[in-house]
Amino acid sequence: MNLDRLRRAPNVAIVGSSSPVGKELKELLQEAGLPVGDIKLLDTEEYAGLLQEFAGQIKITQIISPTAFENVDIAFFACSPAIMKAYVDTAPIFPELTIDLTQTAGEGTIFLNGISTMSQIKESGYFINPHPSVIVLARVLDSLHRKFTVESVTVTILEPTSERGAAAIDELQEQTVGLLNFQPVGSKLFKGQIAFNVLPEVEAALGREALIRHQLAAILGNSVPAPQLMTLQAPVFHSESFSMFVRFAGTPSLDDLRNCLAEVNGAVVVPDSSPVGVVGSDKIHVGRIASDPNQPSVFGIWMTADNLRIAAANALGIAESIMHVAATPR
Questions:
Q1: Cα 83 from Cα 78, distance rounded (Å)
Q2: What is the pLDDT along the chain (330 residues), one digit of tens a residue?
């Protein structure tokens, strides 16, 4: 890693540049105008040699390997958990400055922009980008608790297939096309028909719920009660949805809650928000807030967010924070 280059225009590598979140990160890097020197797009042998465009230049996709990280200042790991595991098993060497969007490789610093303290940011280290659901829940619950004191939380998360990678997206597409053509459908990744259906996917759900609880605790500590969680697999390609019930110590009004949520870092209150409507946005869309007529301290909140965009935006924010710290005189 070159410190001087890190301050001005770091060389960047995106591992898993052809994955759903890798593509989103590449696109966001171009849109944000982050000063970047050279960029390397890395992937498995299947995608080696693939031509990809970045900032008007054609880049050749290279195979992931320790030598591919030479002269790289910041490496984003946006590949699938399976690819990350294979890399760790064969060549567990990471660049000095790594931002992991897979949450699967091991211990590191979990950092959420707007909530985590800047004292956690160093010029080198292994940073873990939180799970998209954690980004949404931590920001919303932190704001609500600071203003009204949260006593308990129950959340049902409807996960998109993109959280399971490109193969899951393909399976939903294939099943949808097959059913619309009155053809029988098969399941490879999921435990049953996902098209026009909702699946419990128990094994995957248990692991995801444990990860969300762990990361929320790491970010919020004991300040906010741990939520009761249930994740379900929804038949959508992108964007996650949250049906959340919160019990407060007091009885805030609907307007109080709307105003508070509108002030959340990266949130927006939009009536009738839906998974399709939020694609391409890095905001948390709050679509409905409802009071319980029998329990005045309990409110239901419906939220949606583009899981790929919100994850990529936070990862990019980590990189920007690192560059800022590196450029700050000591």
A1: 10
A2: 788 888 888 999 999 988 999 999 999 998 887 888 889 999 888 888 888 888 778 888 888 888 889 999 999 999 988 888 888 888 678 888 999 999 887 789 999 998 999 889 888 889 999 999 999 999 999 999 999 999 999 999 999 999 998 899 999 999 999 999 999 998 999 999 999 999 999 999 999 999 999 999 999 998 899 999 999 999 999 999 999 999 999 999 999 999 998 888 777 888 778 888 899 999 999 999 999 999 999 999 999 999 999 999 999 999 999 888 887 766
Structural domains of the chain, with CATH: 3-106 (3.40.50.720), 133-307 (3.30.360.10)
Is the CB of residue 91 less than 8 Å from the CB of residue 77?
no
Report how far residue 199's alpha carbon sits from residue 216's, in angstroms, rounded to the nearest whole number.
24
pTM score: 0.93
Residue among 99, 89, 121, 83 at smallest CA distance from 14: 99
Give buried/exposed letters for 44-78 (b at 16+ CB in 10 A, else e).
beebeeeebebeeeebebbebeeeebeebbbbbbb
- Are the beta carbons of 75 and 99 closer than 8 angstroms? yes
